[in-house]
Design the sequence.
């Protein structure tokens, strides 16, 4: 069956360090992979999208990689700040006419 | 623009009661979705509507019905609530999922409805 895993439920890092979150999938051939941020008590908010033919995408302090051979995406936040503390969700978009498949999320805590 | 709005924000029901969760979007999006989010389970798709006039089941549709009232509104109904339906419900919309394979579109989420079934 199709499966998507974010292999850390929680990640704690110090301010200024780079946070790296992992998203692995099996039995998919996604066309796109997306990353969302969710703050407590709120709905997810879109951050970045990467296409299957792109290796890397950047937006300010955020960087996403997509390795279709390893079936893995890495999400990096450089120079992390306490305001980056949130839950980050990855989502696969693999077939037209269907909806995104979401991972369970990784909760990032950045301490000052 | 308000984006995606959901009502109510909170609701407490007794087992067997019915209720309808309302969702509306003002972004002229064609596709709309209902998810539930439970601790340790992540976001799970209940139903979605790729375009006005169509609805399809998602991963966990049992116990729910939906209505795509018009292009703006997509409601979720619990006919006979059960404690297992205690959850946070999110509505989302996107431009047009049928074209998603070409456009790689994103979803816009509402603030959620917190439902407790006793």
Sequence:
């Amino acid at each position: 069956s199709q499966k998507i895993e974010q292999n850390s439920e929680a990640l704690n890092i110090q301010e200024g360090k780079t946070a790296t979150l992992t998203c692995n999938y099996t039995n998919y051939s996604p066309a796109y992979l997306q990353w969302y941020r969710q703050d407590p008590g709120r709905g997810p908010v879109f951050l970045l999208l990467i296409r299957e033919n792109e290796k890397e995408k950047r937006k300010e302090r955020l960087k996403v990689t997509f390795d279709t051979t390893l079936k893995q995406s890495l999400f990096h936040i450089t120079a992390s700040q306490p305001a980056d503390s949130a839950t980050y969700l990855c989502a696969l978009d693999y077939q037209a006419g269907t909806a995104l498949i979401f991972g369970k999320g990784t909760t990032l805590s950045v301490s000052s | 623009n308000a984006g995606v709005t959901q009502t109510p924000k909170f609701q407490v029901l007794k087992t067997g009661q019915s209720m309808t969760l309302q969702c509306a979007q003002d972004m002229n999006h064609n596709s709309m979705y209902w998810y539930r989010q439970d601790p340790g389970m992540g976001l799970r798709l209940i139903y979605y509507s790729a375009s006005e006039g169509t609805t399809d089941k998602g991963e966990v549709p049992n116990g729910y019905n939906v209505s795509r009232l018009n292009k703006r509104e997509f409601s979720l109904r619990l006919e006979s609530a059960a404690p297992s339906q205690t959850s946070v419900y999110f509505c989302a919309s996107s431009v047009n999922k049928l074209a998603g394979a070409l456009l790689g579109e994103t979803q816009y989420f509402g603030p959620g409805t917190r439902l407790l079934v006793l």
Helices of chain B lie at 100-103. Chain B touches chain A at residues 4, 33, 35, 40-45, 48, 50, 58, 90, 92, 97-102, 104, 106-112 (CB under 8 Å).
